[in-house]
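I am still getting used to backbone structure tokens and would like to learn alongside you. Label the sequence line and the structure token line clearly, so we can match residues to local backbone shapes. Go ahead whenever you are ready, and we will take it from there:
>
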Amino acid sequence: MHEPHLSLHQLVKVFRDGSGSETRAVDGISLDINKGEFVTLLGPSGCGKTTTLRMIAGFEQPTDGEIRVKGKNINPVPPFERNMPMVFQSYALFPHLTIFDNIAYGLKLRKADREVIRNEVAVASQMVNLVGLEKRYPGELSGGQQQRVALARALVLKPEIILFDEPLSNLDAKLRIQTRTEIKRVQHMLGITTIYVTHDQSEALSMSDKIVVMNNGKIMQVGPPEDVYNHPADSFVADFIGNANFLESQVVSVGEDGVIVSIGGKEFTVDKDRAYEGVSSGDDVYVTVKPEALEISRGSGELTGRVDVNSFVGAVTEYKVEFDGQFLTVVHPNTGESVTLFQMDEEVAIHLRPEYCRIYPR
């Protein structure tokens, strides 16, 4: 077994206010990250992901536990000696310095030779497509270009580990996609171990080798994007990652063929391995299914509902369908020459495929 590049061992961070009350921001998490991996800490605001990143960077001291790089405890090592540059959401560029001087800033602090600085800045500028902009100032660049300057400033330090704190939050949708592609391309090319913090599931799914889902200071699930998306460990992950529909249901029976559940008076059989351990007849449960795993049509289907809201968003139309006192989100692809658009208040059929369902205790 090879040693992890970075490992967190029972990491805890407790914040105390003036009144003596405590907030446990990070609650005993352990995680191994291999060399060259792109790992994303994903979760809602206040889940502990940014606090974890700040402890790795050295900006916060752990209350308990250890941060190890190649097996060595780095808790006492100050931030400037860790060689883990952080790319911030706000870019944190110096407005009075040129792009060249912003990128070269860390090398100048290290008293690198002038020729070395010139060469390294040229290489970093080439990697992130900033060639020709070196004499400009940050205020003369777009948000996406400024973020690439911040990335280049980190890359010239030749870090073994690079940290990102929600770096794309200030960019518009198209720039976000372009910049995340750029970050992933450069990371893959250089093989730098990367820890990336975001609350945006599409960013996490598209960029990561491994996703760490966090909530209330704890790790809920760790795995490759496709595994976390398709096999959520619990109802929180199912809801946060895939915006799953949660259908109130009851278990009719549990047998060799699977778990039979009742939804809206209809019975469906779900594979046993897609249900929680210990499921039994009579249990009140949630049956979860992702919006893209449902089909909507006119005519008859397993379930019947009424369109409450339709939202045309280009490639797909998102529907909120009222069914049996609950609301289902359904994603319908807009393909072919004629796009079928179901109108608000229209009666529609919903086709549910049990092979995409999962069962959680209610």
